[in-house]
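Page 37, top half.
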Amino acid sequence: MSLQHTLETAATALLALSDESVFYGFSKGYNDIARDKDKNGGGLYCVGEVVFNTAMTGYQEILTDPSYHSQIIVFTQPHIGNVGATSLDEEADKIFSRGMVARKISDHYSNWRATQSLPTYLKQRQMIAIDGIDTRKLTRHLRQQGALNGCIMVLPPPVAADETQRADAAKKAIAYAQEFSGLGGAMLAENASTTQSFEWDTCEWQQSGDKYKAAGEAQRRVTILDCGVKKNILCALTERGCHVTVLPYTADYQMLKASNPDGVLISNGPGDPEPCENARTLVRQLMNDNIPLFGLCLGHQIVASALGAKTEKMKFGHHGANHPVQEQKSGHVFITSQNHGFAVQTDSLPPQVRVTYRSLFDGTLQGIAADHPPLITFQGHPEASPGPKDAAVLFNQFVGLIDQHKQAHAQA
């Protein structure tokens, strides 16, 4: 009997891709089949775009990153869950990714901050997960074919034990994957955004005292258009003396101006930038007012498209915490955290815009800047949650841009 056949007969879950590839494994997340048996006639499943993430740490920050809305994450790190889970490491108040795939999801953990195991955390948040997958084979497949739509299906005991029923379940899962519309043209930023505006006054985490730092006196006001913002982006700004106001994606120009911003950040978020016309219109109005702008990830794409640039879907995107990005002016290389499936086409940028950063993996555009209107953007996640802190200097640059603009106005 082959190893593959042995795995199939023991499987409690499967991952099916839209190209009809099927991988068998074990359910390690939410599996309350009795409660959700109506979802597929006796099973439990999730669908999304399947992408691989090369980060070695920070799985909890990745799972709760709103930019992963409607995606199934394949972790290339073979052991996930070794340090357990804690609510302190969440980037949002819920999990936005659709599902999780790993070689091994650990039931045991060892970390002084952890409060529960990762499988327990996933079950409490109704997150479907599968392990026992050959993630090296799966990742190579996604690199060759590009990001594919997929379906993770939890197999009820009668289905898992019967070869014919397993084959029928795999066919159903393939059909669900093929029916998923994908992320191209998907407007997801509004779904990942807050519905109510709020103020933020918490600084970055400090290990000493096991708590977040208290905010000092704010010297500048920053308003964030929330397209799916991460908690630690807010903390990074507060840490640098900013009073932070977060507005929902649906905010209009009058609502944003009422927050009296010295600068505006267009946040990270999920989906295709092309349908984000509300945000693009708002950015153009801010440009007319000459208000300093900072675009991050999806926000980078929105700002660039507001300037007239075009965006495109990438083959398999950038997802990980080890991506080298080069600053064009100095040649300095940052190792960065990335999570995006769309990119701005460099040759579509208007002449007044400078290219500031490029990926050393594939040469794609990673950042732009302009003087009129004053703006900077970055395709990655400089708050380093998870990932290295190399690019955190971008927050300093944004604060400097605001201060320079305020000083110029004061002297005028």
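Page 37, bottom half:
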Amino acid sequence: MKNIQWFPGHMTKAMRDMEAKRELCDGVICVMDARAPVATVNKNLRKIFGGKPVLYVLNKADLADGKVDGFVKLIESQGKYCVKCDSTNISTKRLLMQKLTAMTEEKRNKAEAKGLHKTFRFMVAGIPNTGKSTIVNLLSGQKRAKTGDKAGITRDVRWLKCGEFDLLDTPGTMPPSFENQELAKHLAYIGSINDDILDMDDIALELLGELAKEYPQYLTERYGITDFSEKLAMYESVCKRRGFILRGGEFDYERGANALIDDFRKGRLGKICLENAKDYQDWEF
């Protein structure tokens, strides 16, 4: 499988815009995907965040299993704010507002002691397709920010009023290069990289290999796979189960790849976390 690299030109401009507006912000909401917490942290954003307090939001937690709790504990053990949530659930708004209020409590008290009312501003940042704009819409109570399943929907930096907070919705940004290709594959699985630049056959085979190691029962339940020794044979089992057979008896691999990846992204296989906090105890968020 060839190396995965994706850094569209608009991301360079977006990161410059974010850096220019950093001093206007009191803190950062860093949105991650609970199925791949490490892969969905762009370390290059740390320079942009500077010393601002950060709330790490493990979004799409409804699609992840209990392993995500290990990342919540790991991030909090580093003295940082963290919450797991599902941005499509209305109860998430109260949870996020509580965290933002706690993060600004000290500054708020100081301002009130001087008779001042301060509106706190947060930059919402992260990897593409982690649900940043959905969270902005949830907090604001209106569909102000564009959302979609395709990576790179948001292209511009914009301010949005959300109750007692102002939120800066920013485009999803990637590091200029992926040093760790295992993490790059995780981004491909969850849809954070534009599918158009990927070989979806390769992505499907790699995904099957990871699922066979960690979640073989899901492959058995969904596709009837019982032999996990060869990725190609598993791939063909997916095609058989879904009836993706071309004339002459050949397998329609393209439809099989799309079906497998869609099943994973939509949570039809089951709750999955591609990473384990035990393997990242030295990782600094």
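Margin note: The CA atoms of residues 32 and 194 lie 17 Å apart.
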